[in-house]
Structures are given as C-alpha cells and as structure tokens.
Q: What sequence folds into this?
C-alpha cells in the first residue's frame, strides 16, 4: 500500500501529487512554492492572485500541469495558520483530501514534510495520514442487489520524506492498522440485528482471537446461571437467542498480572422491553452493541501491534426483547456480586448487563476497568453527538484515558458522580439498588449504578450513545457506525504498556 522514498524530483512521472501549504508560509515552504511556480512559468502565482487557490484550512485546490511537470495533477491543500494546525486539523484535512479524490484509481504521492510543524513531526503526521486515508475511504455497501457506486482503489501511495524510510513506513503502517480496526468496528455496528445475533458476535470474536493467538472462552447460558449472573440474564429472558459472555485474554506480559479490563456492551437490539421505546426511538437500535464493536476493534489493533500489556476483554451480549418471559418493571433480580436490584425501567438494561460483566472482570484479575456502551439518551442531551460522556472513581486513571482520547481525536468529557447521586441509585424500599432513579441526570445515574459494581477498582465508564453513530457524513465518517473509542482504547493500552506500570505509579492508582 505505502512506498516511502527519499529522493523527490519534479520531473518524476506520476499521476497525483499532494502538497500541504500553510497560510503563513515559512521559508522552506516558500522555497517549495517558488520552485513550483518557476516550473509552471508563473501560473501558480497568477492563480493565487486571482483567488483560485487559497491556503485556508481544508481547502483542496487541484491543478493540472499539462505536461510541464512529472505529476499530471497537483493537489495543493490549505492548512490554515501554522500555529493552529494540530492532530485534529490534520485528520480532518486528510479526510477532506481523500473524499475529494474519491473514485481515483491511480497512484497518488505526497510530500509529507509539507504537512509538518513544531507540534507534528514526520512520524506523527505519517501515522495520522494513513489513519485518515483508511477511515475516510470507508464505505458500508449494505445489502442492495446492485451497487454501481464508484469507489476509491488507489494502486499505491508514495510518500516522499527526507527522513529514514523504514521509520516513516512503520508510522504509516501503524496509522493504517488503527484506521482499519476502526472500520472493522464500523462494519459490526452497521450490520442489522437479524444478521448479527449474540451467536454471530461470539463467532466473530472467536475468529479474531484465533487469528491473533489469544485465549477465548464463550460462557453459555447454563454457565451464566451457575455463576449467578442474574442481572445479565434478566435482560435475556424475553429472547429466543441465548445470552453469551465472551471472554478474551491477551497476555503481553510474562505473568497474568497488571491487567486492564475492557468491557463492551453487546446488546444486539434493544426494544426497551416492557418499557418499550417509541416508534422513532426504536429505529437504529441495532447499534446498541457499539461498545462490543469498540473493544473488538481494539483487540484487532492489539493483535497486530502486540503491546507488552495484559488485556482482558469481556463482552456480555444479548438482545432486549418483549416476550412471555421478559423481565418487568417491579421485578427484583440478584446480580453476580450478590447485590439485589429493583427494576424500575426495563429500557435501562445496558447497566444491568455491564454490572455482571464488571464483577466477572474483577474476579478474572482486572486491576483497571473501562466499560464502553451506548448507555443513555441523557448523554446526548448533555453533550450532543460529538462528545463521549465519561465517569470515573479514580482521577489519575481518568487522566490516562483523557490523554489517550486526545491522541485519537475522540473527545470525552467527565461528568460528576456525587454522594447524592450514589444515594439515588441506592434508594429502593425492597432491594439494594434500583436501576433507574428517574430522568434527571440520566447519564450520571447510569454511571453511578455501574460504580456500585466497580467499587474500589480504578474504573472509567464511557457512554457512547451520542458518538457511536454518525447521522451526517464528515471528513472521516460515512453515515452509520463511527467505530468510536477503538483508537482511544488502543492508545491507552499502549500507554499502559510503556509508562503506567512501574511500582510507584501502579500503587498510586490502585490505592
């Protein structure tokens, strides 16, 4: 896919060459443009003067060289003010470029140094370039019997760099892995629930684990009963599809210790149960397994990059349907850890399946836990569709997650859990907890409920109800599943493998 070369020559025959240009051009870039303008007999200066080319952020300007240069077409990309150009700008800019080249079947080339500044070196920008290429080129073709839409299919991407080719290529390959794994998660989210049952997710997970030499165990319904997972199984009572708990272990260290647990909500379709959703609200509920998709996408990156970190993935998967055996409001159920729960809302099912998964992950040795799920409409009311909501019981651990989200360009915002919030989920006349204290602070109530099961284990809850699906296309996303949190979790695992687990920092987080 990627070829990295040191020697760039304006006379080299190629189809399309991409160049980045800041609005406040520095000396080096002026030299590049001056050289290009000379080759084009002053035509570049004329186009700039006439306003046909501008250097505002994400402007994509195409010029045909008409045989005066080796490249047939130049794509001059405006980057805006140099001091404002960062990782997020770079991703969106590259996404915009690739969207503009959609349908191109030819080789493309890029002068990668022209996109660097003081905060983004060649290796960072190369990783982001390849990641954006993969994500912006994604399409879910669906199930139409005829699909004549033209697709991008670049034969090759040539990257010109002044630095060591192997290191640049390694950065490109890493970015491409991150983008492809995000696309894998998008595919899962986009598949309709009749074609992606809990059994199908288990089969997919098994294939992934076998491909990357990870251990996997599928806990079937009988075993879940024996383990006392009453919260998880209550959600499954109305379904003809048996619930499954998917457990995958990646051991990147010699001993099974210092384990980070990733838990993904895998509700393949959510009717709301007897607290049934509206006809508008029920459409799109195939995406209620986006948390499971996120951790499976993360596993793909882990499998391909092999970090020195132990990772436990737990995916509770079921659907939430209405049937003669469905659980009901006013039921009392008993969770795996023994805490009893009064059910006030069967549409608050995600926290029930995650509760038992958190308990199980702790018993399997997870010292740090992140759960990911499309948990509440309340988080959309609070934060909209661009920001993932987060809650935690450990500020230092959350800081690690926040740093990973910054590196991935997947923003998160911490919501508080106060003692009064905890009191609300503990407020039941007949049980230890209730699963839905009301609409006020709904997103926080979901997190507060899960915190009762995380207890003292450092834990972060990520509510992706607003960010799991794109309802309008962007520079990086097509309509449908976004694969959100795949790259954040992968960055976090990598960070843990290199920085977190020394004796001092490990003990400060756990204690």
A:
């Amino acid at each position: 896919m990627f070829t990295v070369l040191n020697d760039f020559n304006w006379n080299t025959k190629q189809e399309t060459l991409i160049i980045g240009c800041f609005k406040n051009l520095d000396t080096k870039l002026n030299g590049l443009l001056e050289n290009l303008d000379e080759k084009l007999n002053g035509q570049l200066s004329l186009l700039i003067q006439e306003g046909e080319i501008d250097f505002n952020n994400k402007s994509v300007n195409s010029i045909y060289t008409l045989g005066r240069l080796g490249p047939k077409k130049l794509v001059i990309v405006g980057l805006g003010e140099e001091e404002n150009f960062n990782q997020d700008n770079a991703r969106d800019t590259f996404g915009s470029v690739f969207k503009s080249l959609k349908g191109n079947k030819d080789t493309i080339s890029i002068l990668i140094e022209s996109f660097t500044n003081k905060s983004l070196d060649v290796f960072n920008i190369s990783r982001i370039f390849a990641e954006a290429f993969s994500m912006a080129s994604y399409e879910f073709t669906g199930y139409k019997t005829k699909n004549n839409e033209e697709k991008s299919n670049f034969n090759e991407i040539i990257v010109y760099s002044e630095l060591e080719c192997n290191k640049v290529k390694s950065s490109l390959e890493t970015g491409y892995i991150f983008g492809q794994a995000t696309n894998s998660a998008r595919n899962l989210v986009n598949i309709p629930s009749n074609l992606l049952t809990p059994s199908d997710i288990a089969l997919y997970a098994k294939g992934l684990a076998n491909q990357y030499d990870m251990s996997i165990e599928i806990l079937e319904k009988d075993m879940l009963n024996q383990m006392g997972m009453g919260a998880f199984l209550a959600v499954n009572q109305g379904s003809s599809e048996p619930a499954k708990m998917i457990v995958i272990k990646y051991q990147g260290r010699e001993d099974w210790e210092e384990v980070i647990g990733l838990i993904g909500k895998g509700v393949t379709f959510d009717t709301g149960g007897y607290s049934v959703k509206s006809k508008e609200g029920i459409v799109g509920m195939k995406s209620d397994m986006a948390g499971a998709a996120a951790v499976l996408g993360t596993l793909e990156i882990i499998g391909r990059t092999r970090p020195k970190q132990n990772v436990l993935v737990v995916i509770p998967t079921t659907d939430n349907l209405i049937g003669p055996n469905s659980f009901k409001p006013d039921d009392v159920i008993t969770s795996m850890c023994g805490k009893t729960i009064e059910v006030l809302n069967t549409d608050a099912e995600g926290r029930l399946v995650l509760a038992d998964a958190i308990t199980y992950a702790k018993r399997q040795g997870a010292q740090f836990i992140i759960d990911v799920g499309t948990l509440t409409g309340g988080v959309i009311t609070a934060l909209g569709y661009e920001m993932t909501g987060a809650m935690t019981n450990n500020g230092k651990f959350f800081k690690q997650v926040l740093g990973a989200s910054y590196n991935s360009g997947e923003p998160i915002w911490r919501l508080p859990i106060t003692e009064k919030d905890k009191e609300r989920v503990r407020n039941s006349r007949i049980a230890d907890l209730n699963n839905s204290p009301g609409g006020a602070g709904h997103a926080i109530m979901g997190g507060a409920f899960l915190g009762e099961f995380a207890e003292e284990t450092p834990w972060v809850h990520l509510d992706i109800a607003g960010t799991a699906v794109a309802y309008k296309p962007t520079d990086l996303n097509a309509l449908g599943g976004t694969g959100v949190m795949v790259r954040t979790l992968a960055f976090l695992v990598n960070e843990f493998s290199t920085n977190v687990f020394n004796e001092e920092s490990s003990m400060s987080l756990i204690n």
